[in-house]
Design brief:
This protein is mostly helical. The chain has one domain: Growth Hormone, Chain: A (Up-down Bundle), CATH 1.20.1250.20. It contains 17 helices and no strands. The protein is globular and about 50 Å long.
Amino acid sequence: MAFTFRHTKYAAYIGYITQAIVNNLAPLLFVSFQREFSLSLDRISVLITMNFGVQIITDIIAAKYVDRIGYRPACVIAHIFAALGLVGYGVLPFVISPYAGLMICSAVCAIGGGLTEVVISPVVEALPGNEKESAMSLLHSFYCWGQVLVVLLSTLYFSLIGVERWRFLSVIWAAIPLFNIFLFCKVPIRHLNENGESMPVRKLFCKKVFWLFIILMICAGASELAMSQWASLFAEEGLGVSKTFGDLLGPCAFAALMGISRTVYGLFGSKMNLRRFIFGSGILCVISYLTAVFAPVPVVSLMGCAVCGLSVGIMWPGTYSIAARRYEQGGTAMFAVLALAGDVGCTSGPVLAGFVGNASDDLKNGLLAAALFPAIMVIGIAFLRKNDGK
């Protein structure tokens, strides 16, 4: 079989589905972890911190070494770690200390997820073609569709097989990264700036506007993950709805609307103003957080969770695209630094929500605190638009 750049794109899409699996399977099991292993909300917050903390460390290391080892080996290594971590969830907590086993699996999955985030975006950015912003948004939409897939199929599994047999589900999900290992061994891969030098990281850091992109990425990651990581538990315990109903109208609807947002921009982005799109999305995101927190009816609160997905959809890939156009020689290192900033947000958003919710004994207060991030995003985009005008 002759593999083409079209297959490279498919492998990249599956790579983002893999990242969705390693980031979103565990949150669906938080209540099971609480009941089966007697874990507190604080300890679950530490699990989230472990996941994205290790991704941050991976981003830092990858920024230095990915160009040296090459995109192909990095993609293969990322999927190996993702598969090992998913299999580990079904094994380690039952052969060693449960909490230690969950921590180890979270860390191993995080290495795979972090490396995927760093290397897949530049692989797609380097593909032949002119509409890079649309391609980037479409790529990131597969993270959302992967999240929808995880929630729907996992919910179906829980209904048919039972939540108490969740350990076998994590092993089943490992089949996807295992398949993609084979695909990345075969597809053609180009590198960014193959005919020229990439801009050194220290030179990027000397540019004031680049620091604004870092802030935007932090807020994008925090706005997205603070809601998606806690939506399942928030629906089940905070709103008092069933797990199936809560997962379908909470994290599943969140992911579906986020995927729609990214897919629409991926297909029609050339006709839209990206900065205005992000600005409006930030305002909608603040409104959706406030709706989830203050709506007196559980269904309306769940609608706020879902609409949050629509609002955050463009934030991460959109910031990537604007930065890539402004710093065309940024190369892999720039993507790694932006991924690092995004993962800082992915850590700080859910952790802030978790600790504030635990301190006040009400997760609604945690989500209210997390609304600060999309508010900062709106201010940052407004400043960027003003800077562009100058």
